[in-house]
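user:
I keep going back and forth on a fold encoding question. Separate attempts, laid side by side, tell us more than any discussion would. Would you put together a sequence-and-structure record for a protein of your own picking? Write it directly below this note and I will take it from there.

assistant:
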Amino acid sequence: QVQLVESGGGLVQPGGSLRLSCAASGRTFSNYAMGWFRQAPGKEREAVAVIGRSDASTYYTDSVKGRFTISRDNYKNTMYLQMNSLKPEDTAVYYCAAGRRPGPLVYTQTYEYGYWGQGTQVTVSS
């Protein structure tokens, strides 16, 4: 059974930090793109940060560049999202996802991902 489990979400004040983790089991994703997506109320799910087979290949949406850092530990089969300088507009449910096929590319569309976690809530508020 393939399972992705997110953790690390919560309530934080503007300017604060959180680190999200995504633990994979049942399959190794070391050769697959993985990504963090988020969905705010009334909005479509969007890619936040995506990572390829190594930390050398990454993508960030413009709104989080310079504030968020995506990384992966293939030995632990775990992916991370370090979020600094959080803003209220970062409030959303954050989802971990793994790509449908192995390869070196990074993908930014939801249809390119075949495995999803249940999500973890991130709320940035005073």
